[in-house]
Amino acid sequence: MKLTLLGLPLLFVIQLYEIETWPEFDWIIARDLMGIELGEKIKYRNSPYSVFSMPVLEWYPEAASQLDSMVGIYMKNQYSMEWVLDSLRPDFGPASVLKDKTINQMLYYLCVNYLIRLQKPWHFDDIWPLLWYVNGGSGTPHRGWIRYAKLMLGEEPFYEGFFCISWSPTVSKDFDIEDAIDAYQDAKQAGVFVSRSINPVWKEDFTVAECMLYNSRAFYIKTQVEFRTFFWKGRVTDTFNIFLFDYRGHKYLVGFTNWLLKSPVGSHTEPPDMSFFQSWMELYLELDSL
């Protein structure tokens, strides 16, 4: 028993040496644990998408109020969550005297709550994406984007992929293949698809196919991205699937990695194909009119 207890700290040190997480990983875990605690008290069904306060925000209420106002201003003006974490530092007021680490933690929780609270022209029609954590985004009800990361937390945490969705007012002309490619390139440049913390390198080649989604004309882009693994040293490559289409007054871009979604039953040896992704989206992603 003593040997086992003595060995645990050593194992933990070895794991810390090997693990290279996102800077906000500890904040994600803390919020997840708080969500579980609140869930037990007030029966949250889907705590990752519930707005609630965190202790660090309650420790510095005046600073939190100041930062919350700033987050709202910048994210409404399309500054990304990552930009806010990297660059937003008040020159005056109660938050200006806090350490950068404390400010970053507060900004992370405020950004997550902003994106959860944001009225969007879509919603998940199920609690299926329960383990998807808000990983980026910005915007307003009429123009914005959100990125989720699917993380499995626990003694042996691991990462299973990204999901992102962006929306903007429909343009007057027909949405064609050139518009789809331009929207894809713009989103890639803006960092919509993946976190910059994993140091992504995109493959230059991609394919484009026309298809249908929600009874509307759509385009399917398939490409690959190489990135640093989330927890362990090394780099891997994953396929990114992107659908672009106009629907009910908005132009949508929906993208996700192959790792995110499971293969259809009976097709475990083959990756999911376009028809599987189409069926999944129409089943779980509900599009609304604002």
Write a short abstract of this structure.
The protein is of the alpha+beta class and 290 residues long.
What's the arrangement of secondary structure elements?
Elements: H1 2-18, H2 25-42, H3 55-59, H4 61-76, H5 81-87, H6 100-117, E1 122-124, E2 132-139, E3 144-152, E4 158-169, H7 177-190, E5 201-213, E6 216-228, E7 235-247, E8 250-257, H8 274-284, E9 285-287
Antiparallel strand pairs: 1-9, 2-3, 3-4, 4-8, 5-6, 6-7, 7-8
Average pLDDT reading? 83
SS elements, strand count: 9
Low-confidence stretches: 1-17, 263-268
User: What is the rounded distance between the termini?
Assistant: 61 Å
The Cα radius of gyration reads 20 Å
Classify the beta-strand content into a percent band. 25-35%
SSE sequence, one letter per element: HHHHHHEEEEHEEEEHE
Number of helices: 8
From the helix content, strand content and strand pairing, which structural class follows? alpha+beta
| Helix percent band | 25-40%
Spatial order of strands in the largest sheet: 2-3-4-8-7-6-5
Biggest sheet record: 7 strands, antiparallel
Shape verdict: globular
Q: What are the defining features of this structure?
A:
290 residues, 9 strands, disordered N terminus
Task: Give structural notes.
This protein is of the alpha+beta class and 290 residues long. Helix content is 37%, strand content 28%. It contains 8 helices and 9 strands. A hairpin with a 6-residue loop joins strand 6 and strand 7. Helix 4 (61-76) crosses helix 6. The longest helix has 18 residues, at 25-42. The chain is globular and about 55 Å long. The chain starts with a helix and ends with a strand.
